[in-house]
Amino acid sequence: MFGLNKKDTGILLVVAFLALAAPFILNPFPEGSAMAQFNAGYPDLMQRLVIFGIFAIGFNILFGLTGYLSFGHAAFLGVGSYAAIWMMKLLTMNVVPAIIVSVLFAGLFSLLVGWISLRRSGIYFSILTLAFAQMSYALAYSVLTPITGGETGLQPKYDDPRILDGTLEAGQSPRANLFGLEMNDGFELAMGNWVFTFNAGYYIAAVVMLIAFYLSIRIFRSPFGMMLRAVKSNQQRMNYTGLNTKPYTLAAFVISGMYAGLAGGLLVAMDTQVGAERMFWTASGEVVLMTILGGAGTLIGPVLGAGFIKYMENIVSKINKSVLEQWFAFMPDGIEDVMIALVYPFVGKGWHLTLGLLFMLVVIFLPGGLVEGGQRIAKMFRGKKASDDTTDASKTPAE
Amino acid sequence: MDAIILQILNGLDKGSAYALIALGLTLIFGTLGVVNFAHGALFMIGAFCAVTFSKMLSFSHTIIDETQKDFLGNPLKVDVPYIHDLFGQATGNAIIDWAVPLSILFTIPVMIGIGFVMERGLIKHFYKRPHADQILVTFGLAIVLQEVIKYFYGANPIPTPAPAVFAGSFDFGAMLGFDANSIIYPYWRLVYFAFSALIIGAVFAFLQFTTFGMVVRAGMADRETVGLLGINIDKRFTIMFGIAAAVAGLAGVMYAPINSPNYHMGMDFLVLSFVVVVVGGMGSLPGAVLAGFLLGILESFASMAAVLEIIPGINQIIIYLVAIIILLTRPRGLMGRKGVMEE
Amino acid sequence: MSFSNPTRRGLIKTGAVASAGLALPTYLRADGHAGFTNAPQGSTVTLGFNVPQSGPYADEGADELRAYELAVEHLNGGGDGGLMNTFSSDALKGNGILGKKVEYVTGDTQTKSDAARASAKSMIEKDGAVMVTGGSSSGVAVAVQALCQEAGVIFMAGLTHSNDTTGKDKRANGFRHFFNSYMSGAALAPVLAANYGTDRKAYHLTADYNWGYTTEEAVRSSTEAMGWETVAAVKTPLTQTDFSAYIAPVLQSGADVLVLNHYGGNMVNSLTNAVQFGLRDKLVNDKNFEIVVPLYSRLMAKGAGANVKGIFGSTNWHWSLQDEGSKAFVKSFGTKYGFPPSQAAHTCYVQALLYADAVERAGSFNPCAVVEALEDFEFDGMGNGKTLYRGADHQCFKDVLVVKGKENPTSEFDLLEIVEVTPVEQVTYDPDHPQMAGGSLGSCNPGA
Fold first, then answer.
1. CB pair distance less than 8 Å for B2 and C248
2. To the nearest 5 percent, what fractions of chain A are helix, strand and coil?
3. Chain B residues near residue C235 by CB distance under 8 angstroms
4. Which residues of C touch A348 (CB under 8 A)?
5. C305, B159: Cβ pair inside 8 Å?
6. H or E element in which residue A283 lies
7. DSSP states of A175-208 as a string?
8. What is the Rg, in whole angstroms, of the alpha carbon atoms belonging to chain A?
């Protein structure tokens, strides 16, 4: 299907199913129950999950295929975001031009950065990209304040020109929309104690993510992808065969920069504001973590890694002491206090600690990331089944 | 002229912190081939050794002073350090005053211990893993260490003053024949500069003139051959990791009076120190030191008001700009050996 | 059909009974319900406390959270009632808000505008918060304020000092109790002139971002009006930790006052560095060299230790104030937590109470009704004397404290002493003052 082989079609369908059914999958617990804290099926988080999924998919095209570890990808996300918000301020609140322009600008900027940075490889390449990103962040936060809004960032305002849109009615605030369909339109579906939220913005982002994912599969399977993998395994040999690898790596760099710009544009489309922090080096580090955590070089890994980190950030950080008290209320007093004392350092304001520990555990025990974890579990089950089969088989003749 | 001398002085001081951190990083990279993202955290722990030590010195019991009131109108509780009971108030205060220099003695064993545990417990298993994995696992470790410190000490910086003798600043201007006050520099920063020069010298001498150092250098050049000669290089590398951790820790201890330690000070230095290492040349110890001082001086010049007027914002980006230029013109860094991490 | 979940909790609870657990799909529509976002259903109302829990301002955030927990306790009738006893409005009865028990959710802003918005969005979208409050920086305040305007909930700003929050970035749904850069400058200048004379040369070090710019501008213009001269103003990067390169040239410039437009870690480090350089022991132009820190907080003073002694600055509130409101607040906070509250805790506590009171007076949680109740609301007894919530820009106007680092602190909290309480008239400005120019409130947005 779509020019993919059977296995890839399977993966694409699984991702499509996950994305489209996310409002159900992410809300497994009934409202009002103690576990509702872990529900992630609200529009903002769902949007972020798929948008950072796109970011990580794009990063994986560079890192997973060519092995070039960029530490500055957040800069492209930031440039995309700034481009998008300016389109919304100047042209129209419709998200289409904003997203197109964000991809374009991020592409141009990554062309410049890539053209320079790709003259080096290995850790030197990483430091070069890091240097560009840190410069972008530092300038956006300070000297470029007239363009970027600096510390307070940019938001669309009532009195922006927006030449394509008519003037807003008094009291209306500008809202991002797709030909009139507002990003925060949606409805809720209640089934028994469960409430599922369906949100227009999320589905738009999810469809974009599916297209991005499909494209990345095509890139992985194309001769171009083969070439990139060859670069990863032995660039020197490639050079000796008389082949100039730079156009290929540069193309991969620009493509992944455009993915980052797309993610930046979508972020603005869903939540109309930009702050310079999104270009800080830790943001670049985050996408590296997402990709490696999920499984670099695998198709689905980066999406899983992105989901995992964003979920941690948004859900675990919101568990406070009174929530813990609710959870453990059924226990006798003494034990309750002990349980709270044990769990409390790892949730709420301690969510960074949990994140750090999980990174370490995953890297130590699952070098291939979550995907490897999944494969191991699958193998375990299959192995069991297989052995069951053999015992069955050995039994059958006896009967 | 005096402005320039002042900024050179400044750069040397700033550079000595960069150089010390970069030196430790390079030791670890050069000997073990490990990219250690937790190195900044070791620096931070060093600074907190000073905090802990001065807290231990002022460990106290409470007495209730009926003559004074606290903010709620209850009798004031006054903390009396045990050290006052032991040595009397004057000597006790003098010892507390000297907490930072004294804590060096406390820091060295603690940091070497942490280094050993880290190497044996974690880093050892990552020698054969790709650099990306090393970065990730040490980055995770850095976050964990940081959060642990935050849990015990809070997020607010903790003032850790230098001994009162070193308060104030030295007037070079008067000495060199400029106007008074035109070139002044704080005593403690001069101490820091001398201290780091000493540490750097000691590390180099250790590697250059001892048998142990010779073997380690040989191991850095060709680990396999040294192993084949029947030398237990692993054990020595563990010791080197301990030493690198101690260097980072010492850099941190003495830095505590310059900037009040907080739990994220390591991360603030991390990116910068990597830039320093790469500019100096991966695996080159003299390169790391040279680049540390060079970037420190450049950064100082870039923050001069006169320079900022011509190029606004240059102080924000100078280090990265220089790093880009050097990496493009001298791929191996200033003093990197050919063939090390070129790919 | 626009999205909102006004009825979420309530409808679930009633709906669950009605459908008796049958998995019959029910469409929840926004239209036809209370007419504003997250209208509280049932017997509870949820507030969102969005404070920094990680990052450099985590301790300040922790203090804000303590204050909010205390406020919730008092609103629900627990504790000693705190400021509710001294507040000039007596609409609050200690039975929750409009009879609904107050519940809250917390989130981590990380002092990053993206993270703060994500956290606030989850409070609004997932937890049904009808009001969001808190924060410890202007970047976050402006970002979350804009979000609340779009979503149709009320935003009660926490600690944010930049002029922009109620200046060029003001929004109808957002309110600020904390003071701002302009007020700091206006309050400080006369005290500085009285103490240091009118013939001074100032050297500014300014954090290179919006708050720094507005603070520098405010302090500069009000000190220059007093006769001071500004010899230089140098911008320092936010990420700077060692300020030696910026402080070393100060003496050469011929300046005799150093103004540090820094906050948080920046201020702790730059002040520590400046004192290290021995600036305060120097005589320049036959005058003692002085250092000024426009915005003080107790946590910063604690971080800078002995270096703050004798240094002037301004603050929104301090626990050593002796009016009834302040005493009541210090007493309930101190009894519960064992140490006096910071100014961040105070402003957050007051904001929570002011919101609750406005809802009671308006008789509705509808943001537009709340806005109407808060606009031009005059009150007293909250620790800052007579205060006006000005309708034109949603900024509180009240006395400003000029403080000085204490020479002989008696405890680790006793770091600042009040030098002068600058009367509100002196710090009041026109809504269209040039430093506040641009931006408009727009009109309130009740959401769906």
1. no
2. 70, 5, 25
3. 308, 312-313, 315
4. 53, 106, 108
5. yes
6. helix A281-294
7. --EETTEETTBEEEEEETTEEEEEEHHHHHHHHH
8. 23
**Taking the CB of residue A17, how many other CB atoms lie within 10 A of it?**
11
The two beta strands, C101-108 and B184-186, are unpaired
> What would the CATH number be for the domain defined by C182-315+419-424?
3.40.50.2300
Query: For residue C378, which phi and psi values (nearest 5 degrees)?
Result: -110, 135
Tell me how far CA of residue B220 lies from CA of A100, B226, B332, in angstroms. 51, 9, 17
Q: For domain C26-179+319-393, is the CATH number 3.30.70.120?
A: no
Domain boundaries, chain C: 26-179+319-393, 182-315+419-424
Q: Give CA–CA dist A57/C398, Å, rounded.
A: 53
When CB atoms are compared, the residue of C54, C104, C146 closest to A352 is C54
Q: Do B140 and A131 touch (CB under 8 A)?
A: no
Residue type, C390: R
Beta-bridged to residue C203, according to DSSP, are C232, C258
Strand order in the sheet with A186-191: A194-199, A186-191, C25-28
ipTM here:
0.86
Q: Which of C269, C282, C330 faces B181 most closely, judged by CB atoms?
A: C282
Q: A359–B143: do the CB atoms touch at under 8 Å? A: yes
Reply yes or no on whether the pLDDT at A232 is more than 90.
Answer: no
Task: Judge whether B23 and B200 are in contact, CB under 8 Å.
Answer: yes
Tell me whether domains C26-179+319-393 and C182-315+419-424 share a fold.
yes
Q: How far does C272 lie from chain B, in Å, by closest CA?
A: 7
Inter-chain contacts counted by CB atoms under 8 A, chains A and B: 117
pLDDT in tens, A280-336: 888 898 898 889 888 888 888 999 999 988 988 888 888 887 788 878 888 888 888
| Two structure tokens written together for A394 | 């050995």
Put simply, the answer to whether C249 touches B305 (Cβ < 8 Å) is yes
**Which two three-digit tokens encode residue A35?**
């576990």
Quote the Cα angle for C335-C301-B56, to 5°. 75
Res C418: pLDDT: 93
d(CA B49, CA B43): 10
Residues 6+ positions from A48 with CB-CB distance below 8 Å? A267, A270, A310, A314, C118
